[in-house]
């Protein structure tokens, strides 16, 4: 075909595609309180809230009956050059990593390779304080009480991160198993037990059991060179840009890089319980500890409250839990400088929402977005540190 004719053909084809895209019906989905939302209505709502709160970029996915019915990126991955944030933008998973690790761990439980209630001492070849990373615990035998369940439901008694301690050392603030206190150190110890005690390569297991299995092709526990040119920078509450951290070490507490499309696919699979026994899914998403702290952060608050008893706020294995207005629900946040993520599912309805932002200012709109796009579930917003 002559070049001129070929160009005319391509131009005509693109024009027809544009007409078809403009004419195709907008995506419509139902909320849990039986409202119908069109793509245009969602666009207007999200863009209005983002503008009012100066949010740089936000990804939104809605899952109904176990299927992703809406997914879209808004704003910018990089504000300075107006690179758009899309469902394929590489974003920092932050503590969504913990919930993803929990899924992998529960597969091991399903296979009989791990017992959540077995003392971690039974898995290790030598006492925990004899390993250099845990030498701080020498002289405190409470480590022998620890189980994988305690590490994953945040009742280890550790601070969130040891570097937040005045002397940067790990210590028990409470007896293990007695009370909830969010701890990334606990999840890191769970990873350590799998690696040192069972010889499991957590990075490889996450890749094969989760990322490959659920077709999460852009998700990894460590940095990939292929992420260059596709990633989102982070923006803090004062608008300062944060570089994307090139994490080289697998960290079950928060090293995962992913995309909105990948993690929405995973969350839909979680809502369906794909590849996991009903018993394991219930173990992961039902509370084994009820929460009596007035707020999640700062951790280890001594103050107690009965405020959350009515909704049975608690923690399972890597996931927070509560009773919503539409049934049992489970959730996970992910926060770092320049990153705020939120995932929540209503169990029996297999309905979820996923919000992934490269801007800490987005946290201010998470609750109204959940209420409008999924339904007024009655989030424990104040406990999570969100505006209600």
Q: What name goes with the CATH superfamily?
A: DD-peptidase/beta-lactamase superfamily
Average residue-wise pLDDT: 94
Helix count, per DSSP? 10
**Any idea what the CATH architecture is?**
3-Layer(aba) Sandwich
Low-pLDDT parts are: 1-25
Which sequence of SSEs, written as H and E, runs from N to C?
HEEHEEEEHHHHEEEHHEEEEEEHH
- Ends distance: 62 Å
CATH topology: Beta-lactamase
Give the CATH class.
Alpha Beta
Biggest sheet architecture:
9 strands, antiparallel
Strand order of the largest sheet: 5-4-3-15-14-13-12-11-10
- Computed over alpha carbons, the radius of gyration is 22 Å
Which descriptor suits the 3D outline? globular
Number of strands: 15
Q: What is the beta-strand fraction?
A: 15-25%
Helix content: 25-40%
- Structural class comes to alpha+beta
Would you write up a description of this structure?
- The protein is α+β, with helices and mostly antiparallel strands.
- The chain has a single domain, classed as Beta-lactamase (3-Layer(aba) Sandwich).
- The chain is built from 10 helices and 15 strands.
- The chain has helices spanning 3-23, 39-53, 96-110, 148-152, 184-198, 202-212, 260-272, 278-285, 366-373, 381-384; strands at residues 28-30, 36-38, 57-64, 67-78, 83-84, 91-92, 234-235, 241-242, 257-258, 289-290, 314-315, 320-324, 327-336, 339-346, 351-357.
- The strands form 4 sheets. A 9-stranded antiparallel β-sheet has the order 5-4-3-15-14-13-12-11-10, sandwiched between helices.
- A hairpin with a 2-residue loop joins strand 3 and strand 4 (67-78).
- The longest helix has 21 residues, at 3-23.
- The model is unreliable at 1-25 (pLDDT under 50).
């Amino acid at each position: 075909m002559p070049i001129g004719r070929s160009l005319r053909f391509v131009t005509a084809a693109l024009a027809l595609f544009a007409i078809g895209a403009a004419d195709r019906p907008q995506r419509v989905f139902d909320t849990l309180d039986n409202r119908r939302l069109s793509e245009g209505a969602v666009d207007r709502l999200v863009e209005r809230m983002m503008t009012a709160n100066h949010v740089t970029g936000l990804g939104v996915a809605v899952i109904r009956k176990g299927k992703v019915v809406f997914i879209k990126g808004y704003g910018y991955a990089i504000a300075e050059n107006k690179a758009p944030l899309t469902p394929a933008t590489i974003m920092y998973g932050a503590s969504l990593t913990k919930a993803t690790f929990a899924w992998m761990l529960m597969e091991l439980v399903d296979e009989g390779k791990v017992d959540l209630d077995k003392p971690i001492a039974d898995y290790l070849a030598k006492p925990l304080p004899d390993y250099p990373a845990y030498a701080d615990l020498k002289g405190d035998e409470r480590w022998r009480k620890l189980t994988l369940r305690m590490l994953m439901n945040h009742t280890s008694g550790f601070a969130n991160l040891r570097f937040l301690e005045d002397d940067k050392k790990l210590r028990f603030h409470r007896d293990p198993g007695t009370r909830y206190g969010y701890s990334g150190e606990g999840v890191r110890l769970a990873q350590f037990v799998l690696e040192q005690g069972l010889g499991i390569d957590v990075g490889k297991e996450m890749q094969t059991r989760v990322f490959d299995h659920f077709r999460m092709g852009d998700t990894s526990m460590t940095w990939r060179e292929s992420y260059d040119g596709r990633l989102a920078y982070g923006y803090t509450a004062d608008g300062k840009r944060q570089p994307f951290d090139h994490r080289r070490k697998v960290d079950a507490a928060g090293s995962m890089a992913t995309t909105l499309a990948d993690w929405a696919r995973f969350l839909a699979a979680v809502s369906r319980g794909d590849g996991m026994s009903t018993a394991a899914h219930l173990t992961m998403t039902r509370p084994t500890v009820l929460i009596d702290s007035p707020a999640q952060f700062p951790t280890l608050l001594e103050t107690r409250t009965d405020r959350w008893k009515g909704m049975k706020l608690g923690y399972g294995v890597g996931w927070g839990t509560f009773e919503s207005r539409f049934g049992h629900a489970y959730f996970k946040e992910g926060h770092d400088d320049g990153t705020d993520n939120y995932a929540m599912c209503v169990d029996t309805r297999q309905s979820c929402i996923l919000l992934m932002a490269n801007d800490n200012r987005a946290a201010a709109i998470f609750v109204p977005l959940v209420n409008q796009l999924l339904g007024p579930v009655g989030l424990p917003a104040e406990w999570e540190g969100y505006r209600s």
